[in-house]
Please model this.
Amino acid sequence: DGEYRHGKAVMVRGVRMPHVYAYLTGFAEFIENFTTKNDDVFIVGFPRSGTTWLQEVIWQIFNDGEISRHPIGHRVQFFDEAKFPHTTQPDITTRASPRLMKTHQPFHAIPKGTSENSRCKYIYVARNPFNVVVSYYNFDLKMAPVTDYDGPFEYFADMFIKGTTYWGSWTEHVLGWWKHKDDDNVLFLKYEDMKKDLPSQIRLICKFLGKNITEDMVDRIAQQCTFDAMKNNSSAYWMMTRDGELPNFLRKGQIGGWKDYFTPELIQRFEKEVLGKLDGSGLQFDLGR
Ligand code: A3P
Model:
């Protein structure tokens, strides 16, 4: 829809998803019938908020700081692609526990434990929207085969403000999860805090998951999960682009890198129409300016 090309979307249980993920594959039925387990861990975030980073950190917490060259999506499965047509991933429903999974679903759509005795855990990561939209634009423009965007940044930013990119409105996404930040099975993190002090965030994650790890292990994982360390382990983070290339999808990994993309007018619009919607919620972001 619109002047520029952007891959076809389909609404699944109120969530705007890429057509191939969802429509062709019965994702709605899959997610509706998905049974959670007590020891399931969902890593959650709006796209481009640091979910891959969190996948790696949490996988290492569960695997004694091992560095794996195995693709991250096989170790911590992307739930939203569980029914992807040509997946090479194992079946998520029969996967050995504890199941580590990543998803972009908003709170209202996430699989929930069916009773008090089956409460999985959710670790949410939020990132400042200026960086999210720049990262998302670069990803959709250059990489993702399903999104296939061919327009300029301004048009993409307008879609982002209106909530018509995949997985919908950023503000609704973060606010939906923020409301549940004090639930005992939800941990709400921020990309900027991870960037500034990863060890402290690793300690929070371990406490939340009930994992005892040594300070040495905290430091080791923090060092192995810096942007540069992960970028060097490129075999774990590739994806197939629509041109059939296999680039690394870690791009810049910064807090303030959005400034080159924004005109003063767009900054004003974002402050009003995106950040403005957080007013009164207590949720704030370091924009790195
Ligand atoms: P940039 O495009 O700004 O570089 P997600 O995995 O949720 O889609 O988020 C992707 C963003 O997280 C990308 O942002 C990526 O580079 C960044 N990222 C991944 N690993 C990181 C790390 N170790 N440190 C900082 N940023 C990281």
Observations:
- The pocket of adenosine-3'-5'-diphosphate is lined by residues 45, 47-53, 131, 135, 138, 195, 225-227, 230, 250-253 (CB under 6 Å).
- DSSP finds twelve helices and seven strands in the chain.
